[in-house]
Amino acid sequence: MTDFPIPTHPSWLVLDNTKLSDYKRCHRLAFFRHFAGIKRAGNTEHDLQFGIWWHDIMEAILLGGEAALPDVMRHIKAEWEAAYGSFDADDPETYKRFKNKTLDRLASAALMYISTYRNDSFHPLKTELSNSIALDREGKYVIYFRLDSVVEEPDKRITVLEHKTTSLSLDANWQAQFTLRSQILTYLFAVGCCFTDSRIRGVLINGVSFQKTAITFDRILIKRSPIAMQCWLDGILQDFEELHRDLERLSHDNVDAPTMQAFRMNDGACLDFCRLCQYHTCCTSWGNPLPRLQDVEDYPPDGFEAKWWDPTKA
Questions:
Q1: Which whole number is the average pLDDT over 5-11?
Q2: How far apart are the first and last CA of the chain?
Q3: How remote is the C-alpha of 109 from its chain's centroid?
Q4: Are the beta carbons of 208 and 109 closer than 8 angstroms?
Q5: Cα–Cα distance for residue pair 217/212, rounded to 1 Å
Q6: What number of H helices and E strands is found in the chain?
Q7: Nearest to residue 12, comparing CAs of 250, 196, 180?
């Protein structure tokens, strides 16, 4: 790898849609999170962890049905207690703290899911499948991905199940967001390289909403035309090219310069769901962040800790 003004990390070029999504939102955010490898200390990211637990439940149900629930719930309870301490369902503060994504509601949702989709007849081919695929003929641009489940239906067609949790209503706007989402189209591209188009049913968004007064489910099937897939491919290749140009700029940046030229800021992305970006103070205070990022594993900036996202180790 080319010389850079900060220490490199093996995960730098392990690119997936999480990294590309952050990069498209704000180049500087992606730099801090995925290349400098810093995040706010003490941020437990409960929504992310709750989603992981729901994925564990979905995998258990798909492979073992309702009989598999006790074991997976015991495992989740142990992880909850290790992260947060004992769970008190009688304490109203519990529901305020975790915004309705709690251990008891997770268990209730699992039983409701089994009842709602009791007529499912999926034959699982793969679950939690991690892999990568080249996006160009030369193999220069490779994207990593993780499929929640690949199943065969009774008519022998192939469907990718993509599990999604939210606190929002599963309304038309929530559903529509997945039609153009690069993550979903990457899955279609990947299965399209393994099966004939006539065999592919599509990506089935397997949604569950944990709202204050209700737990609801919905499914949305996503399948795109060849033209739509080409539009996606054109765009993601441009994203790769732009990111590689930023890495080239970074290799020419200097710790002694007043500013860093690579990974420009996007001043329209400082708020996300009404929350201020965790790197906002970095962007307002540091013209050139490089001097503060020379040894983040041992000496991270105040209030931050070292953590890199590597989809091959998720």
A1: 95
A2: 24
A3: 22
A4: yes
A5: 14
A6: 10, 9
A7: 250
* Count of positions (residues) in the chain: 314
Q: How far is CA 26 from CA 108, 144, 201, 270, in A?
A: 38, 20, 34, 9
pTM of the predicted model as reported, rounded to 2 decimal places: 0.92
Question: Residue 187 is inside which H or E element, if any?
Answer: helix 182-192
CB atoms within 10 A of CB 28: 25
Whether the Cβ atoms of residue 277 and residue 29 lie closer than 8 Å to each other: yes
Q: How confident is the model at residue 314 (pLDDT cuts 50, 70, 90)?
A: low
Phi, psi dihedrals of residue 130, rounded to the nearest 5°: -100, 135
Tracing tokens 């929530």 back to the chain, one arrives at 174
- Residue type (1 letter), 25: R
> What's the sign of the alpha-carbon dihedral 52, 58, 64, 67?
positive
Indicate the residue type of 14: V
In whole angstroms, give the CA distance from residue 6 to residue 254. 9
